[in-house]
Amino acid sequence: MNGRWGWLRRLWRLSTGRFGLIVVAVVLATAAVSLVWTPFDPQQVDIPNRWLPPGWPHLLGTDGSGRDILSLLMAGARTTVLVAVGAGIVATVIGIALAALGALTARWVRESVAVLVDILIAFPVLIIAMMISAVWGGSLAVVIWSVGIGFGVNIARVTRPELRRVLHSDFVLAGRAIGLTPTQNLVRHLLPNVAPVFIVQLSWGMAVAVLAEAGLSYLGVGAPVTEPSWGVLLAELQQFITVHPLSVLWPGLAITFTVLGLNLLGDGLREATDPTLSRRDRAARTHVPEVVA
Fold it and tell me: Fewer CB within 10 Å, N side or C side of the chain?
């Protein structure tokens, strides 16, 4: 049990990991709670109570339609989690598949995959999303697939050389000697040893997914206006920033802290799960410098 959960204790000891873990946990908990409860109906229009300042019972105030901003933010957390997790799953599948094809197959396949990755990586993620939105219309599915494909290619490009490096390690050669298939070697030896690099890229991709959803929703090609979204809320409120600046602050802070938390959590997980970093840390703690007279 200690070995299994040791990475979590190391993550908590890191200030970056602790901050990222708390932020991500708060966002996940908010999204889960909003499924069954919000202070008010997020889409309830209450014209007499429009533009109320923060106070009771509207803790973060109301917007121009009288809707409770806290309820809108809680409901928007569901969209954020859906996009981040969905894009992360798509990026993981595409990235690992391309990296494995580019590292473990015949030479002509590896070179073909490398060329394909170089071509695809030339297209920015947001451009891909806007191109897909122009054809199939704006939706959360478009954001998830476009960001997932874009960062799956990034993951493949970074993970492929790491797989090639680990492929020639002694423990991989020993696995071959005892009869492990390439798939078994990939699962048991290769992927765990490239996990730190993969985790950083995945956390970055999920953070960009949050930004992409907010940005595309802001531009009107992301989440539909009927779907609670931090980007949609920001787009609706930004035109009143000079009159009611505090109302725009809340969705902006939600997006900022979520993206920052995901990035810092990825950095913390890299340090907590990287076996080479762990060995160096233990060596540094156990080394006692000599006292020179």
Answer: C
Domain contains 20? yes
The CATH number that applies at residue 228 is 1.10.3720.10
DSSP state of 105: S
- pLDDT (0 to 100) of residue 286: 42
CA–CA distance from 68 to each of 55, 63, 233, 250 (Å)? 11, 7, 11, 12
Model confidence at 199: pLDDT above 50: yes
In order, the DSSP letters of 243-286 are T-HHHHHHHHHHHHHHHHHHHHHHHHHHHHH-HHHHHHHHHHHH
Is 194 strand, coil or helix?
helix
pLDDT, tens only, 59-85 = 999 998 899 999 999 999 999 999 999
Q: What is the DSSP string of 174-191?
A: HHHHTT--HHHHIIIIIH
Letter for the amino acid at 87? A
